[in-house]
Amino acid sequence: MSKQIKYLFIGAILVLMAYMVYNATSQPGVQDLKGNFKEVALYRNENNTGPIKRMYAVTVDDTLWSEMKQYGDFMPHTKYGTTTVYFFKTGSAVPAELQPGEKPFDNTFQPLAKYEKDGMGEVSFQNLLEK
């Protein structure tokens, strides 16, 4: 009788471990979004003791606003840091690099949208075509 309980217990642990591995490897990610998102440029300040500032320039095939917001939600974020994602139409002019400051790229580049998550985790998403 005790051997059966031992085997049941081991079997239950194995099933639980298999479920945990499956659950960890089947989470949704950027690759599951529609729109063919491609990261073109990245800026991250080198300040590892204070707020981390991340900026991304990303191309997208279509103006899928909800998908863009989800893409921004998937991007890494540091407590008290800022994560900003600029979305550009695929085939349009896109900056090859981003710089710190109010204007991370030249005015000749026209993004479709801007996603920003601030230091307190507040998210803002702006459709820049409606300006």
Widest beta sheet: strand line-up? 1-2-3-4-5
Question: Radius of gyration from the CA trace?
Answer: 21 Å
- Distance between termini? 74 Å
What class do helices, strands and sheet pairing give? alpha+beta
Strand percentage: 25-35%
What is the mean predicted local confidence, pLDDT? 89
The string of secondary-structure elements, in order, is: HEEHEEE
Q: Largest sheet at a glance?
A: 5 strands, mixed
Number of helices: 2
Give the overall form: elongated
How many β-strands, per DSSP?
A: 5
Low-pLDDT runs of 5+ residues are none
Descriptive report:
The protein is an alpha+beta fold. It contains 2 helices and 5 strands; from the N terminus they run αββαβββ.
Summarize the structure.
With 131 residues, this protein is an alpha+beta fold.
Name some characteristics of this structure.
single chain, 131 residues, alpha+beta, 5-stranded mixed β-sheet, 2 helices, 26% helix, elongated
SSE arrangement:
Elements: H1 2-25, E1 38-44, E2 53-60, H2 65-74, E3 82-89, E4 113-117, E5 123-127
Parallel strand pairs: 2-3
Antiparallel strand pairs: 1-2, 3-4, 4-5
